[in-house]
Amino acid sequence: MSNNPHFLVMPYPILGHMNPLLQFSHVLIKYGCRITFLISEYIQKRVKIPSDDDAGSSKIDFVALPDGLDPEDDRSDQPKVILSMRNTMPPKLHKLIEDINNGLDFENKISCILVSKNIGWALEVGNNLGIKGAFLWPASATSLASYYSIQTLIDQGIIDSQTGLPIRRQEFQLLPNSPMMDTANLPWCSLGKNFFHHMAEDTQTMKSFGGWWLCNTTCDLEPGALEISSQFLPIGPLMEATDDSNNKSSSFWQEDTTCLEWLDQQQPQSVVYVSFGSLAVMESNQFKELALALDLIDKPFLWVVRTGSNGNNAYPDEFEGSKGKIVGWCPQKKVMNHPAIACFVSHCGWNSTVEGVCGGVPFLCWPHFSDQFVNKAYICDFWKVGLEVERDHESGLVSRGEIKKKVEELVGNEEIKARSVKLKEVTLNNLVEGGRSSKNLDKFINWTKDY
Ligand code: UDX
Description:
Layout: E1 6-10, H1 15-30, E2 34-40, H2 41-44, E3 60-65, H3 78-102, E4 110-115, H4 121-128, E5 132-137, H5 141-148, H6 150-155, E6 171-172, E7 181-182, H7 193-209, E8 213-215, E9 232-234, H8 238-241, H9 258-264, E10 271-275, H10 284-296, E11 301-304, E12 324-327, H11 332-336, E13 341-346, H12 350-359, E14 363-365, H13 372-382, E15 386-388, H14 400-411, H15 414-428, H16 436-449
Parallel strand pairs: 1-2, 1-4, 2-3, 4-5, 5-8, 8-9, 10-11, 10-13, 11-12, 13-14, 14-15
Antiparallel strand pairs: 6-7
């Protein structure tokens, strides 16, 4: 077998999984590995495939398979997508790997399959072909530890075995050295019973077939979560492990880079950056309240408003927006590291959380679903680098007054700022030569070469 492993990289087809796996592919290329990157045909038709112009991407072979659904089917129904992929894709994946390998010399054949979550069955396909498997968890190690602990939580009477919902709502500590967790915030609770079943099954498959469980985290960020299994391997912060200084883009979505020039014209630490990731959808009255809050705050803002994410972009009539810049999608990592950014109003998706930490940026947390509540607990209670917005008890909305008040409190809090800068330094140290994540990356690459 070659000294340069060939990876088949297969993310579950949503952006929050595709981007971390693409970033990790670039890391693997730096180590001399070859990458075949598998996406669904549906996604292939809808995203920008990073081209030969994008540094590093030329070394990635993109391939596609159907996900088993019709083009008009609703892909936001995740249990439906997960089930369709699992029911229809294994034989197609098996054939694809055979076809690729048949055309290659022995030393260049696919030697490892790397997946994100929801598609553990792909490791079983690899196993049947004698190919190693590993997986890259696209969220926090703590959420991975929650899935890993499903059976324990059932045995301890904390969750119901059928629905995954808490038997009773309580605060508990899932892991040592971690923030307290509300049982209602276990990551599957907001996603429905079907999702829980799929994830419980998927985790079992991973336990059977996965080698390493790579986590985009560090030993300092989530010390307790990493103790749960010796299979967990922290290799973060992933987005900092790739050298993208010459990279036009390694994202699947078209980025509006004009915001970088706009940021260049703003005062240091003056801009409120607002983004809710790739999935969260804001109700239209909440969207209006946020727009009016941004008008009220005495600071410029950069706001990512994804097309279709706000009920057809219904800005309120009285919204001026004159202090800000609104984009459909931005190069977030670069934004995070721009000196003009003062704070990050975030849904607390894990990738955004780590990117904000690496930018040394204080957070105003506005979690929407799944693991985002636990990520918020790390930000506010464990690392103490952010504050949380509170909803009005009657309307259920976060009012414009609350948003303004919390932004002002956050940007005026020197202790939070100092802790954010320190956390950035500690986190990035994991990637310097001899740092713990660097060593773990070496360990992983050596494992893939070991036959
Ligand atoms: C999903 C889940 O929602 C989240 O809870 C889980 O932790 C990971 O998977 P998503 O909602 O997309 O992810 O959020 P997040 O994890 O923050 O990922 C968003 C990614 O999009 C980040 O890497 C961010 O840099 C990128 N992004 C966001 C851009 O590149 N440009 C933007 O304008 C906004």
